[in-house]
Each structure stands twice: as C-alpha cells, then as structure tokens.
From TrEMBL:
<protein>
    <submittedName>
        <fullName>TetR/AcrR family transcriptional regulator</fullName>
    </submittedName>
</protein>
<feature type="domain" description="HTH tetR-type">
    <location>
        <begin position="21"/>
        <end position="81"/>
    </location>
</feature>
<feature type="DNA-binding region" description="H-T-H motif">
    <location>
        <begin position="44"/>
        <end position="63"/>
    </location>
</feature>
<keyword id="KW-0238">DNA-binding</keyword>
<dbReference type="InterPro" id="IPR001647">
    <property type="entry name" value="HTH_TetR"/>
</dbReference>
<dbReference type="InterPro" id="IPR009057">
    <property type="entry name" value="Homeodomain-like_sf"/>
</dbReference>
C-alpha cells in the first residue's frame, strides 16, 4: 500500500512502521520550516500541505488534525531553539552568568516571534492549545539545569534554574512589547550579579 494513502486519521497508527515514522518526520520538518517563516496566523491544513508538498488528506493520515500538527510544529521549533541556545552556552565563558547571557541572542532570534505567538495562543484558547504553554517549562527548565555548575545539589540547580527562567521570560515579554534594549541590558547586569553571587558561595 502507498505510504501516503490517507485511509486512516492519526500518525500514531503508523508509529509501528519505521518508514511511516520517517515520512511523518519529513512532513513535520517541512511544516515546521513554514511555520517558523510565516507564523501561526491563518494556519491551516491546506497551507501546511502546500509547504510540505503533499495534500491535506495525507497530513490527516499522519497527524490528528490541524491543532495536533500545529502543536507538533511549535514543539519542533522550540526544540531547535533549545538546541541552539545550549550550543551558544557551550561556547561561552565558564560562568553561569556568561552561559545564560550567551543564550539570549538565540532566544530573541528569527523564530522567537513565532514561539511568542504560540504562548499567546495557549493563553487565549487554553482548551485547544494549553500544551503549547505546559511544554515550555518542561523543556526549558532541564536545559537551564544542565548549564548549572555540575557540583551543585539537584535542588539548588532546580531553584536557580527556575529563577533564571522566570527572569528570561520577563525579558522576552519586555523585548516583544517595548523593545527596550537598554532596559533589558540593565536587567541582565543585575541578573549576572545575582548569578555571580550565587556561584561564588559554592
């Protein structure tokens, strides 16, 4: 049978097939690229199908409708952002403050506006898109924990990472709503002092 035959709805039906899963990932990558470039407004299966070079019926074979496909694409964008952030942190100096500071240009990079739209969508229509907001902390928190000094106890890593995440979210909102670069830089100076103080008491 043709792997693209849209006879059933839901990609989970093809999860047992390596070929089917590879096809699903290929389609998702193409849709994710399109969402990253054009945002979430007016997203539809037909728009996604054009980007993926297929039909909306084929997408319905691999995904559980437009909300599922959009959620999967946003999660994919978020994973890309986290991976790039950690790569930037790895190239920074050895201090926690330096690693956090190095992540910032990635967090406000080209696709950041789309991820901001996703959080807004989750707040506006939580019944349909709550997962977009829930998964943000679930994914970003472990990334921040991973850049904390390795000799810190787990509880301390978690507490400091929660603090960093909350502050960065505030900076992101400020960046998106006011574009106050100097104000954010002042905030980063204060955040760096706090993190340097925390690290110095090790």
């Amino acid at each position: 049978m043709d792997e693209d035959a849209p006879e059933k709805v839901g990609y989970r039906r093809s999860a047992g097939s390596a070929r089917g899963e590879a096809r699903r990932r290929e389609l998702l990558e193409r849709v994710t690229d399109e969402v990253g470039a054009n945002g979430l407004v007016d997203f539809s299966l037909r728009r996604a199908a054009r980007a993926a070079g297929t039909t909306h019926k084929v997408l319905l074979y691999y995904f559980d409708g437009p909300e599922d496909l959009l959620t999967q694409a946003v999660l994919q964008l978020r994973e890309r952002r986290i991976d790039r952030s950690l790569a930037a942190a790895d190239l920074a100096d050895s201090t926690l403050a330096g690693r956090v500071r190095a992540m910032w240009p990635v967090l406000v990079g080209d696709e950041s506006w789309v991820l901001d739209q996703a959080i807004g969508l989750a707040m506006y229509d939580s019944a349909r898109y709550a997962e977009l907001a829930r998964t943000a902390s679930v994914r970003y928190l472990p990334a921040l924990i991973s850049i904390c000094p390795p000799d810190w106890p787990d509880e301390r890593k978690h507490q400091v990472s929660e603090f960093i995440l909350a502050v960065l979210r505030g900076f992101l909102i400020e960046w998106r709503t006011s574009g106050d670069g100097p104000g954010i830089e002042s905030g980063f100076a204060a955040l760096s002092r706090a993190l340097d103080h925390e690290e110095a008491r090790t």
